[in-house]
Design goal:
This protein has 6 helices and no strands. By secondary structure, it is mainly alpha-helical. The protein has one domain (30-146): Serine Threonine Protein Phosphatase 5, Tetratricopeptide repeat (Alpha Horseshoe).
């Protein structure tokens, strides 16, 4: 008899759907920075941000500077989404993440400065809500102070 791979047929010889040998192997691992980005935001708009996870994300970014552009791109896209949805708490969380990035990743500031400034321009252009413009002013001030 010929050789049949165990990937196709389980060791018991039966074709049972519950058998672990027949389960799909298509599950991909989630990138760590994506998991951290998902965990920094509260589950509801009224919840508080997870400060410990924000610090973990910033420490991860400091140790892995090649991930900073992807993190910044995600934050910028999320900011645009939350502006359209008018979730000021989530915009505040994004501004807090950028503030921590400014403090912890000064050497890699060039990697996320363009994204940060695009977000600030978007916040300052909002003429309907003063709270969002205030967040934009505070973020711009922190960015300027971190330059010195």
């Amino acid at each position: 008899m010929g050789f049949i791979s165990r990937k196709l047929f389980p060791a018991c010889g039966n074709m049972c759907i519950c058998c672990p040998a027949m389960r799909s192997r298509s599950r991909q691992p989630v990138k760590r920075y994506k998991k951290l980005l998902a965990e920094i935001f509260p589950k509801t708009p009224d919840g508080s941000p997870n400060d410990r996870k924000i610090v973990k994300l910033c420490e991860y970014a400091a140790k892995n500077p090649f991930r900073i552009p992807k993190i910044a791109k995600y934050l910028e896209e999320r900011c645009h989404k939350e502006l359209r949805s008018e979730h000021i708490k989530f915009i505040n969380v994004i501004a807090e993440v950028y503030n921590k990035l400014l403090c912890m990743c000064k050497e890699q500031m060039a990697c996320f400065a363009a994204s940060l400034l695009d977000m600030v321009v978007e916040l300052l252009d909002d003429s309907k809500r003063d709270a969002i413009r205030i967040i934009g002013c505070q973020t711009l001030t922190r960015f300027i102070y971190s330059q010195v």
